[in-house]
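Minimal example, chain plus flavin-adenine dinucleotide.
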Amino acid sequence: MDFTLSAELEDLRLRVKTFVNDEIMPLEADPANFDDHEMIDETLLAKVREKARFAGLWAPQMPTDRGGLGLNTVGMAVFYEEAARSRFGPLTFNCSAPDDGNMILLDRVGREDQKDQWLQPIIDGKVRSSIVMTEPAPGSGSDPTMMLTRAEIQGNDKWVINGRKWFITGAEGAEHFILLARTSDDKRRSLTTFLFHKDQPGWRIIRRIPIMGPEEHGGHCEIEFDGLEIEDSNRLMEVGEGMKSVQIRLGVARLTHCMRWLGMSKRALEECLDYVEDRVRILARHWPSMKASNGCWVMRRWISRSDVC
Ligand SMILES: Cc1cc2nc3c(=O)[nH]c(=O)nc-3n(C[C@H](O)[C@H](O)[C@H](O)COP(=O)(O)OP(=O)(O)OC[C@H]3O[C@@H](n4cnc5c(N)ncnc54)[C@H](O)[C@@H]3O)c2cc1C
C-alpha cells in the first residue's frame, strides 16, 4: 500500500506544522498564558484562532461552503496529527473534541435549517458545544442502551427531559448541546437525539468533576435534567435513531482522537530525545570516559528503527 501523501496534502501538512511551531508553541511555552485549568487563556485563543483562519487553516473537517477546508478522511488524519503536536493546536484550528465530533455529526445528519442554527455558529468559533450521553451507574456508559434519562412526548411537538448525566466535556460555557435520551423500551430503537441551548430552563450543572492534568474549557460536568422542554423541530434524525447518531459521531471520533494522540506522542518522543541528549551531555561532563555521541546514536537508531521519528 502506498502511503505517500499527495503534493497538495504534504503542502497543507507543512503549513500546519509551521503555524504550530511559529504561532502556538510560543504560547504553550509560557504558563502565564494558561487559565486556572492549564488550558490556553480564552482571549489569547481568540487571537491565535483569528490568525489560523487568516492562514486558511480553519475547520479542516467542515465543507468549504460553510467555511471549512472540506478535507476527506485521509486529509483530516494528516492535519490532526500535525496540529496536535501542541496540545493547543486542535483547539486553535477548530478541530478539537468535543466540537469536532459534534460538528461532524450535525453536518452529516442535520437538516439545512438545523445546520444553520446549531452547526454554523460552532464552525464560526462563536459558540462551543457538548455531547450529553454518559450517566452515573447503572445508566448509560460503555453501553448507551442502558440509558435512564427519559424524553417523554407532550402533545405533538414537545419533549420533556428528566434524568442525570456526567463527564460531559465542555458543558460549563458550552451553548449548543446534543443530548441522547430514552424515548422507548424497544431494544433496537430506544434512544433519540435532541438539540438544546444553554439558556433553556429545566437543566443545571451540578458540579465540575476534577480530572488529572489540564482540562478542556468548560471541564467535565455532572448535569441534571428536571423538566427541560425541547421542541420536536430540535430533534436530530428520526425518533429511535439515537444509537445510529452515536455510531456516526463516535466512529469518526475514534480516528480523530487517535490522530491527535499520535501527534502528541511524536512530540513527547522528540522532547524525550532532547532530554536524553542533554542528560548524556551532562553525564559526560561529569564522567569523561563516557562517549556521549554514542549514547545518542544508539537511542536515535532504536527510535528510527521503530519508524516513529
Ligand atoms: C475525560 C472524559 C471526558 C468524557 N467526555 C464525555 C462527554 O463529553 N460526553 C459523554 O457523554 N461522555 C463523556 N465521557 C464518558 C465516557 O464516554 C465514558 O466514560 C465511557 O463511555 C465509559 O463509560 P463508563 O465510564 O460508565 O464505564 P463503564 O461502562 O462502567 O465501564 C467500566 C469498565 O468496564 C468495562 N465494560 C463495560 N461493559 C462491559 C462489558 N459488557 N463487557 C466487558 N467489559 C465491559 C469497560 O470497558 C470499562 O473498562 C467522558 C469520560 C472522560 C473520562
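Strands lie at 129-132, 150-154, 158-169, 176-182, 191-197, 203-208, 220-231, 235-236. The first helix runs from residue 7 to 28.
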